[in-house]
Amino acid sequence: MNVGDEQTVSLWMDTDVLLKAPALRRNEKADTVVIGSGIAGLSTAYELAERGHDVVVLDRGAIAKGMTSRTTAHLTSLSDDSFDALIKMRDLEGAKIFYQSHSAAIDRIETIQRDRSIACNFRRVDGYLFPALGHDASELDPELDAGRKIGVEMEDARGLPFRGLSDTRCLRYLNQGTFHPLRYLRGVAAAIQNHGGRIYANTTVEKVEEDEDGVTVSTAGGKSVRAKFAVVATNSPIIDRLTIHTKQAPYRTYAMAFTIPRGTIGDALYWDTLDEYHYVRLQPGPGTTDYLIVGGADHKTGEADDAPARFDEIEAWIGQLIPDLGREVHRWSGQILDPIDYAAFIGLNPGNDRIYIATGDSGQGMTHGVIASILLSDLIVKGENPWSEFYDPSRKIPSGIKNFIVENATVLKNFAEYIAPGELASVKELKPGQGAIIRDGLRKIAAYRDDKGKLHKCSAVCTHVGCHIHWNSLERCWDCPCHGSQFAIDGTVLNGPAIAPLEKL
Ligand code: FES
User: Which pTM value belongs to this model?
Assistant: First the structure.
């Protein structure tokens, strides 16, 4: 493990598909500069390049190695908060736009991989929503009703390829999809370069400034990119202190991949109705073996550090449904940003005229990322898109709604940690491989002892807006519960919105 990497490796990272790119070593000019090289950033750069824009893409790490490489890559046009809840939150017209835009995103991926001959295992598959084990099937009724009102291609069906569920009622959704996200993005990145776009890795953006004529993006290496427009697609926007961050909350989710004999279950997407739902899909493997990917057991970032128990829960759950599961080949975690009114924030950054953002991916980062590419390229090139109002980052969210109060309570609770005692009395108590928050007089330190016994100490105060970070023993990094920043053991930023590293002590 390198300092600056998270610990776990997803099924996608196991294949050597990441695009190698240089760091930015000279000043650049472009029509649009895109910050972030996950699915939202690369797809947006692709759409703009296709439309004749000169684009530059910058990423603080390796290309596509952020949260996009930790997805399970379900391509679905459903709402993972349920259509029933979405209609109540955003009304029927809003729910229709959600469904149409997510369907269009799947169509767009299908078109691009076909037109560009990208070998990324793209398949059209059905999706199945089934009652959580022990729950009554009648809990599917509101979703069936909501789907019919929206015009979703779906059926009230029976029978799942899982033990004991061969006659269970479920909802079958047509025309969903799945793919290998990093192979796909490798092809997209190559197409951007073929259009003359430049892609830079290991380039940390420190500032994004807007003036009347354009934007200037400055990097930690002392270089800059001058452009007419900037798109900030950094999972969590690095340019916002609070506005957007009060409207979404970070959650950590867990995934595992097992071998499974091909044909054991049908190639489809499967979800149950638990609040922190389980999700299952297949990925082609070698010979007659496939990989079964299963995930779930989410929790708010930084509010639990019990990954082994969560993986046990996932394994026990899938073991009940598929007794013939093979060996585990990967386990990993990732972070999602859950928008409190159930759809991403895509459009002009509040208060800016030339800086656009894409964030609030929820459990649907792949489709939200591609929606961002369609929507933002339209806004930049034509000035309009029919989905823009629905996804507008400046949209009003009633501050009285339950989600707003619950999610923002995290920040208040976290600030109380300034006066709370540390987790250990002294760094002497730290065992190799362990991290903990320790009080040192008036301040708190984030201390980690590596496997060789060396102590790494940083300030425990997140450089975004000052919340206290928490230890993540699975990924061996520090997580900020407030807005999802992540820091490596040496304080380097792994994931925004923080820009500056933790203060080293
Ligand atoms: Fe906002 Fe840490 S991510 S305070």
Answer: 0.94
